Every structure is written in structure tokens, then in C-alpha cells.
Amino acid sequence: MHIAVAGNIGSGKTTLTRLLSKHFGWTAQYEDVESNPYLHSFYEDMQRWSFNLQVYFLNSRFRQIINIRQGEKTVIQDRTIYEDAYIFAPNLHQMNLMTTRDFENYSSLFELMSSFIQAPDLLIYLRSSVPNLVNHIQKRGREYEASIRLDYLKRLNERYETWINKYDLGKLLVINVDEVKFEDKAEDLGMIIEKINAEIHGLFQE
After folding, report:
1. Sorting pLDDT into bands at 50, 70 and 90, what band is 201?
2. CATH homologous superfamily for the domain 2-205
3. Which among 4, 25, 42, 180 could disulfide-bond with 53, CB atoms 3.0 to 4.6 Å apart, if both were Cys?
């Protein structure tokens, strides 16, 4: 099975991926942050590096999905290929941080790749307010994230909501992380695990 965790920057995707991987014994695949050759440059000059970064993520996640489907283990993935295509790339284009030429090239590449892949069996979306995102971003203290603007997070949040409201590629579980503190409260994590179990059993019955 392929389980994926989606959500804005600072919503807790990596933490939940780690906790669920440990509980269920799933293989975790994390977003390529540390070895990403474009991320630091992107936050220093978004306009110059936006296309390079998005193509890097597209390639990285496409490879992840191919490996997940070819393997025999249940994998939980931190962020999806769809978030890049439906949220981050169009947002950069709208903010004039990616040219129309580059955006159309990127979109064409995604369209081709998406015809070769299956959506996750279960998508877990972490819904968060902007103040909660900011709190998490500040707490983890990544230097290159210090320059992220509030309007950037707000725009991303709006795009996430639009995408999730139309999502019909597979099973969907929405968690409001303003209220559900799974990192600090064992009972909140337990509630998420119960909901996932219910969804997974539903998958097996179909």
C-alpha cells in the first residue's frame, strides 16, 4: 500500500510520517530537504530558482512513486507529487516567480508523468491555520525558512483547500492540526491511528 501525508509548510507532515511509520512498521519516504541542491538558493532568489526546484521535486517524487509501486512494502510518503503540481508551481507562477513559459513546460511534464502513476491508496491531509504554521516553522528553526512570508503561506493554504475540496483520486482523511496535537498528546495520535485503521480496512474490503 501507498499512504501519503499532505499539508502546507510547517503542518507536521514529517513528524506524523515518522510516528505512523514507527507505529505501523511502514517504510517512510521523506521529502528530500537536506540533500536538495536547489532549496537554499530558491529561498534566496525565488524567481531565479523556482523552475529548477520544482523540476527537481517532480523528478524526485516520480521516482519515489515508481519505487513504491514496484516494491512489496507499505510505504508512507511525506508530501505528494500532486502538491507540487497543483499548489506550489501554480502559486509561484501567479506570484510572478515562475515565467509562463517555464510553468507551461513544467505542467506538460507533470501531465505526462501523472499518466504513468497511481494515486496513493490513502491521502492524509493536515489542515492548519497560518499562525499555527508559523509557530511550527519558527520552532524547528531552519535558517532558509526564516524568510518565508505570511502571504506566501496564506496563498498556499488557499490552494491546498481548493485541491482537497476537489480531491477524488482515492481515500482521503483530513486532520485539523490546530486542534489535534499528535506530536504532544498520545491520545490525539491514537485517534488518528484509529481513523487510519478504519480507512485501511475499508481498502481491503473493496
Report:
1. confident
2. P-loop containing nucleotide triphosphate hydrolases (3.40.50.300)
3. 42
Condensed to tens digits (0 to 9), the pLDDT of residues 69-100 reads 999 999 999 999 999 999 999 999 999 999 99
Q: Of 69, 62, 42, which Cα lies nearest the Cα of 148?
A: 42
* 78 part of the active site: yes
59 to each of 8, 47, 52, 113, 177, how far by Cα in Å?
20, 20, 11, 9, 29
Catalytic-labelled residue, pool 45, 78, 184, 188: 78
Mean pLDDT within 105-109: 97
Q: Which residues, including other chains, have CB under 8 Å from residue 157's CB and lie 6 or more apart?
A: 8, 128, 129, 130, 133
Question: Do 119 and 65 touch, CB atoms closer than 8 A?
Answer: no
CA geometry: angle 80, 16, 36, nearest 5 deg: 50
Model pLDDT for residues 27-69, shown as the tens digit of each residue: 999 877 778 899 889 888 989 999 999 999 999 999 999 999 9
Cα(9)–Cα(180) distance, rounded to whole angstroms?
17
